[in-house]
């Protein structure tokens, strides 16, 4: 029984990074599968940058300067 618990624990630890694929590490996790395409819905600059760079949501950078959602990512 202990071996089974150990094996299952090891499997869970190994598979965790696979399950998190496509998300940012850390306390804030984002996914291109989320439906948050507009600046007014962004909660942080990191989230806006993720959607611009990782998901290719170009409308977040209307002026094309590389800074998404100027209302969230103040210069």
UniProtKB/TrEMBL annotation:
<dbReference type="InterPro" id="IPR008613">
    <property type="entry name" value="Excalibur_Ca-bd_domain"/>
</dbReference>
<dbReference type="Pfam" id="PF05901">
    <property type="entry name" value="Excalibur"/>
</dbReference>
<feature type="signal peptide">
    <location>
        <begin position="1"/>
        <end position="20"/>
    </location>
</feature>
<keyword id="KW-0732">Signal</keyword>
<feature type="domain" description="Excalibur calcium-binding">
    <location>
        <begin position="35"/>
        <end position="70"/>
    </location>
</feature>
<protein>
    <submittedName>
        <fullName>Cold-shock protein</fullName>
    </submittedName>
</protein>
């Amino acid at each position: 029984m202990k071996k089974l618990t150990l094996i299952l624990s090891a499997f869970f630890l190994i598979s965790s990074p696979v399950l998190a694929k496509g998300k940012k590490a850390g306390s804030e996790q984002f996914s291109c599968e989320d439906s948050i395409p507009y600046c007014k819905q962004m909660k942080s600059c990191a989230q806006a940058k993720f959607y611009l760079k990782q998901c290719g949501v170009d409308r977040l950078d209307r002026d094309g300067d590389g800074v998404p959602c100027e209302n969230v990512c103040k210069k």
